[in-house]
Amino acid sequence: MHALVHGRPATLLAQSRTPETRDAVARALSGIASLAVRGQLGEIDALSPEALTRAPPDVLLADIDLGSAAHLAALETLVEALHATTSVVVAAEPAGMEPVRRLIRLGIADLVPLPMVPAALIEAVQAALAATRRRGGGHADAERGMVIAFLKAGGGVGATTLAVEAAAALATGRGERAETCLMDLDLQFGAAALRLDIDHPTSLIELPDLSRRFDGTLLRGAVAHHASGIDLLPAPSSMHPVEAVSAETAQALVSVAAQEYRHVLIDLPPSWSVWTRAVLASADGIVLVLRPDVPSVRMARRQLDTLAAEGCGAVPLMVVANGTGSGPFATGVPLADIARALGRPVAHAIPRADRAFGAAADRGVPLSRVRGGRRAAAKVAAMIRDAVALARAGGQP
Fold first, then answer.
1. In what order do the strands lie in the sheet with 146-152?
2. Rounded to 10 degrees, what is the CA torsion of 376, 378, 384, 387?
3. pLDDT tens profile 192-248
4. Largest interatomic CA distance in the chain
């Protein structure tokens, strides 16, 4: 293993409270080439933020007591001072959920439990170095990821399910695995975490003031990682008013996500607000999901009219009918009639597969992994590929 940051040897400052931890860190990291490790024995509040900002390390390893208010306050001061240059890894004895959530809000790159396990420390340091490389501009100069927003034509149309399946299709597509982030921003009824069987403490509500300090390290530390390859920022576990989020917060979140991930899929609430408009306006593409019934078609028409009135009419948009049948099983409004009512074609029709969708949700796996789900999964994969292509082209189907 080696550690280079922009072509130079990486630096790590390891603050340890005991000689035993200091020695364990030195032994664990001795096998990483091009990593200069400097140790400091003592408490974290003995570190000077001013001195560190003059010569910031690439990684700071902080050995703290999560039950100490003084340690947490000193850590917060250091993170604030070094956030532009340094990734922070915390080493600590196991603690309750609340201190861990506070670390997530601070944007800590990783948490390594004490007593020290060498493999865990090495993995955390490698991840922190990768975050420092991105922070230093290597990732920011890369092509911006595609942002696709899922807009609902009313409740119960299955937009969340399609967003989850679309994210899984992007994350497990052929060739190099895509970096895909799914953000469930439905603050009241978001269910993406339930669909993936994820119990995760951090949502948009728990993140800090994004307009003041927010970067890719904080986002990647806040998301949940699913086995399918999806990074999920879930909805809150309790209901919050839509106005709990500002437009500035939403824009900062989308901007950072697009810098960090190749594909960013956003599940929005059905209701409009200042911040949902900001998200839609900044998206590269919109997927409008409806059911093939009269109330949903009427709501889709209202959504299209509102998009135009709010200045979002130029964002490439794809209409998707979810839960359709064929032949003798066809029910509801015909697709041709939906197209006439909306003034644009239905680009994709996702067939009903209630049993397969239910089985996938019960197991927390993509639709393609359950019996009877492959046909619908293939339809969703084709849909999201076309949505991304449409967004890149900047046109309409």
1. 224-225, 230-233, 180-184, 263-267, 146-152, 285-290, 317-324, 346-351
2. -100
3. 888 888 887 677 776 755 555 567 777 887 888 888 889 999 888 778 888 878 888
4. 76
The Cβ of residue 84 has, within 10 Å, a number of other Cβ atoms equal to 11
Residue 139: per-residue pLDDT? 40
Helix (DSSP H) and strand (DSSP E) numbers for the chain: 14, 14
pTM over 0.85: no
Token pair for residue 114?
């004490």
Residue 2: exposure state from Cβ atoms within 10 A (0-12, 13-18, ≥19): exposed
Q: Which residue has the higher pLDDT, 8 or 333?
A: 333
| Nearby residues of 112 by Cβ (< 8 Å), 6 or more positions away | 61, 89, 90, 91, 92, 120, 121, 124
- Which residue shows structure tokens 């680009």? 347
Domains and CATH numbers, the chain: 4-135 (3.40.50.2300), 146-393 (3.40.50.300)
* Residues 297 and 341: beta-carbon distance below 8 Å: yes
Q: Are 268 and 155 in contact (CB under 8 A)?
A: no
CA nearest neighbour of 277 among 322, 233, 245, 239: 245
Helices (H), 197-283: 216-222, 247-260, 274-282
Task: Enter the tokens of residue 233.
Answer: 């920022």
Q: Which residues pair with 321 in a beta bridge?
A: 290, 349
